[in-house]
Amino acid sequence: MNKLDEAEKYIKANKERLNKQYRLEYHLMGEYGWINDPNGFIQYKGKYHLFYQHYPFDAVWGPMHWGHAISEDLIKWHYAPLALAPDEEYDKDGCFSGSAIEKDDKLYLVYTGNIHTGADGGEYKQVQNLAYSEDGVHFKKYDKNPVIGQEQIPERASKRDFRDPKVFKKGQYYYVVLGSNDGMGNGQVLLYRSLDLKQWEFVNILAKGDETMGYNWECPDLFELDGKGVLIVSAQHMKARGNDFNNPNSVIYFIGDLDIEKGVFQLGDCHAVDYGFDFYAPQTTLDKLGRRLIVAWMDMWEMPMPTQERGHNWAGAMTLPREIVRVGDRLYFKPIEEIKNYRKNHYHLRNIKINGEKYLDTISECYELEIEFDAGEAREFGVKVRKGKEEETILCYSRDESLFIFNRDKSGIGPKGERKTNIALKNNKLKLRIFVDRCSVEVFINDGEKTMTGRIYPGKESLNISVFSKGECSITRLDKWDIAVLP
Ligand code: FRU
Fold first, then answer.
1. Angstrom distance (rounded) from CA 53 to CA 114
2. 335, 369, 400: which is the final residue of a domain?
């Protein structure tokens, strides 16, 4: 049996063994086993396709396959057969991250083949490959792979880290940006171009970080938004700057001027894409509605993942897809509209005053909360979700420090800690949209000015929600809907 069928068969035979306790209601996960980066995010022949880094045989990272899910609306996903397995010389130790593009009605995948060069996998080389499909479901690898080989790596670029092609078309050319580093501890992005996706030429080192911005850049993404260039990269071991970049790895963006012909991107300031705990290796796509959508792996390397233990048999999930909007020299991230179609059981409060803690007379596991606070006299105010006898996840605004804080010290099992980010009140008001799922929280602050994403693993009984303040504040409106996708 070939490797793809073998993996498929294994999933079908084992998926009943999943422990469902933390299986997410409205976020994409693998059908069984491990997933990481989103790959090949595209709208093709009307449907959204999202592929992902996948090791189906266990809830740990292993030789990478590409899982595949298809959706009409980015919320309800159906699993398609696995798209790629590591079964050729040029990808024998993993089909690593990559992206998708449509050409002549076909769906093309451009991905990295990982090849170990030493016995223990510590040494490796990486090349870029092509696969294609007529129906968007069954893929064939191109018979002249690799399409970008080791010999096409320029000087001043690592011969080892050379991965994660993100493909796009501009004018007559197809381009890929590739994750790289200069071999001296600075992440960088390489640009290549092609007329047919098969023959590629190196254009330039498009952009390079400094020594604070991570020793290697993974999963680059380059696009234009309202006339400006945007570069997003996943920076390994980015150095902390105060409250920012306190995770092992960080996703950062730059807005700047792009000269695609010369292959030069003038980097503007560097900002975090998300200010929480768990957001990595995102990928964007432009859909037919003209939206620039982004989805990320809702986990973090080097952090414990509770569903790897106790017979859960799965690990890894995607964030809610978000729409990117440029507001001057910043990006805003908003939940996609489609999520509203899954709202059920509306609960609301209007114009109430709080001073102390108040429980809402509703409980839920998977829901959306929209709250508008008027800070009044309060020094501190916020909301607690997935609250039980001893558990709570705190989302709180501190007026004295002008900080929004996500604290998961008492969230349940799983990693703890808090993340903080600077937010200014507008007319003394704070607006939150919060998405809670069985083991995740995503907060959109002030219409997407900043987002904070984190995984939490509360007990089944921790279902309460409370609002609180130190000093009097008012909630001008609070709306809550359960979100139900699964039948
Ligand atoms: C990012 C990453 C990519 C690589 C993939 C391997 O999370 O390390 O650079 O292609 O994961 O699974």
1. 13
2. 335
CA distance 148 to 52: 21
d(CA 446, CA 477): 14
225 and 275 in a single domain? The answer is yes
Helix (H) or strand (E) holding 13: helix 3-14
Of 315, 335, 355, the residue that ends a domain is 335
* 339 Cα to the center of ligand 1, angstroms: 28
Sheet arrangement for strand 292-297 = 280-286, 292-297, 322-327, 330-335
Query: Which of the residues are catalytic?
Result: 37
Mutation test residue for ligand 1: of 34, 35, 37, 247, the one with most atoms within 8 Å of CB: 37
64 lines ligand 1 (CB under 6 A): yes
Please tell me the total count of domains within the chain.
Answer: 2
CA of 422 to the centre of ligand 1 (A): 30
Please write the tens of the pLDDT for every residue from 85-98.
999 999 999 999 99
For 360, list phi and psi in degrees, rounded to 5.
Answer: -80, 145
Q: Are 55 and 122 part of one and the same domain?
A: yes
Pocket flag, ligand 1, residue 383 (CB < 6 Å): no
Atom of ligand 1 nearest to the CA of 280: 7
The DSSP secondary structure of 176-230, one letter per residue, reads EEEEEE-SSS-EEEEEEEESSSSS-EEEEEEEE--TTS-SEEEEEEEEEETTEEE
Q: How far is the CA of 439 from the centre of ligand 1 (A)?
A: 23
Ligand 1 atom nearest to 53, measured from its CA: 12
**C-beta of residue 294 within 8 angstroms of C-beta of residue 284:** yes
Domain of 285, CATH number, reads 2.115.10.20
Cα(38) to ligand 1 centroid in Å equals 10
* pLDDT tens digits, one per residue of 16-62: 999 999 999 999 999 999 999 999 999 999 999 999 999 999 999 99
Residues 143 and 232 placed together within one structural domain of the fold? yes
Q: How many angstroms separate the Cα of 100 from the Cα of each of 139, 197, 247, 258? A: 12, 11, 29, 22
Q: How confident is the model at residue 119 (pLDDT cuts 50, 70, 90)?
A: confident
Residue to probe by mutation, ligand 1, list 55, 114, 163, 295, most atoms within 8 Å of CB? 163
- Which residue segment(s) compose the domain that 70 sits in? 3-335
Q: Kindly report the protein residue whose alpha carbon is nearest to atom 9 of ligand 1.
A: 218
> CA 366, CA 456: separation in Å to the nearest integer?
13
